[in-house]
Task: inverse folding
């Protein structure tokens, strides 16, 4: 009896994992923008007290890689906001330590919530029919820094943005190409006094 | 007169007493209970799948039956709406044939083969183009499929009437697999009544 139960339990477990229709998420659309829609405002020199500026500008009708027609991402997602996130680290000795930017984060367009990472929100602007974020982090201390966009993303060669779609609507993941990050997904800079 | 009445009553009593063992053997023995109804408790509790099975025991070790199932699960509905799954099974009708692998009719292993007619809802994200601009939209449709499968089970009775059945049985849909689930499962723990 025991052998029989083990046998049929084993079969049951094996077969339960076999249904390929029941995997993953089906309300998602993955798009890669033809041109960058988010990035870093690069400066020749970063002074303590200056902001490190981040931007996002996602046209509501987006030119995407591999498709002949532009894609209406607002109609698809019904979203008013696209989220993305970034993390600032400072070199301490040979280590990189995450910087708490709670009091240093700001947003001119859109919104930003700071802590040990920044959750940035590119908000839809009907005047230009695009989702916009302009903001960043004030550098409060001199030293070597690096910035990454991988807090909510595993990809290191693009910046990922996610639509904050209303419940049960299609969610869009946009990959924004970038040349500003190294192969590990970091942007390095030095802040001087 | 009293003697005649007493004799008549005694005769009747003896008659009943003589008939009783025959009645026990003929109608209460499990082999003479050829019909069974049951329901799968695992399906009801975990998947909100209400189901009823009728099984008819034939000569020797064979039996045939049919299961009807209807799903109404809030979790499956929510997962379907949120996009965690792209199909929602709603009904299935499953005729089956079984063969008893053990000698005892009171507790035994069995093998079954089944066919299934099953259907439900399907959802997919499709790309549309309107006035030169593309967009995506979720579209719902329904599916119907037929599948076949087989499995093994164990069943025992208490009081020769009440059945407990453990079944692990799987199959595959054959016709509309783009929409319907690939795998059909009849795994469950059922209780039933044999009469």
Result:
């Amino acid at each position: 009896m025991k052998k029989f139960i083990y046998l049929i339990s084993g079969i049951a477990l094996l077969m339960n994992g076999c249904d390929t229709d029941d995997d993953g998420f089906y309300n998602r659309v993955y798009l890669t923008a033809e041109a960058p829609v988010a990035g870093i405002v690069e400066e020749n020199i970063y002074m303590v007290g200056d902001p490190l500026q981040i931007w996002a500008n996602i046209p509501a009708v987006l030119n995407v890689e591999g498709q002949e027609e532009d894609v209406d991402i607002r109609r698809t997602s019904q979203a008013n906001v696209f989220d993305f996130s970034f993390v600032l680290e400072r070199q301490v000795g040979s280590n990189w330590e995450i910087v708490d930017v709670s009091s240093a984060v700001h947003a001119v367009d859109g919104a930003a919530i700071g802590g040990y990472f920044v959750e940035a929100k590119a908000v839809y602007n009907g005047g230009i029919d695009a989702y916009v974020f302009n903001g960043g982090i004030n550098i409060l201390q001199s030293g070597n820094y690096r910035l990454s966009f991988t807090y909510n993303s595993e990809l290191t060669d693009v910046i990922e943005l996610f639509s904050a779609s209303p419940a049960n609507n299609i969610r869009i993941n946009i990959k924004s190409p970038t040349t500003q990050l190294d192969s590990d997904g970091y942007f390095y800079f030095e802040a001087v006094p | 007169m009293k003697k005649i009445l007493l004799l008549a009553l005694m005769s009747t009593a003896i008659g009943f007493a003589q008939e009783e063992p025959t009645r026990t053997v003929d109608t209460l023995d499990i082999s003479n209970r050829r019909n069974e109804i049951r329901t799968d408790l695992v399906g009801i509790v975990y998947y909100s799948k209400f189901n009823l099975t009728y099984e008819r025991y034939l000569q020797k070790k064979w039996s045939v039956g049919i299961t009807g199932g209807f799903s109404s699960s809030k979790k499956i509905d929510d997962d379907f709406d949120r996009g965690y799954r792209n199909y929602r099974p709603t009904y299935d009708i499953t005729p089956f044939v079984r063969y008893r692998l053990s000698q005892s009719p009171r507790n035994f292993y069995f093998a079954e083969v089944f066919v299934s007619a099953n259907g439900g809802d399907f959802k997919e994200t499709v790309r549309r183009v309107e006035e030169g601009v593309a967009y995506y939209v979720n579209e719902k449709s329904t599916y119907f499929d037929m599948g076949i499968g087989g499995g093994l089970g164990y069943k025992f009775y208490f009081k020769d009437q009440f059945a407990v059945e453990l079944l692990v049985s799987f199959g595959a849909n054959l016709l509309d697999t783009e929409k319907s689930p690939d795998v059909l499962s009849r795994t469950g723990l059922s209780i039933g009544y044999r009469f």
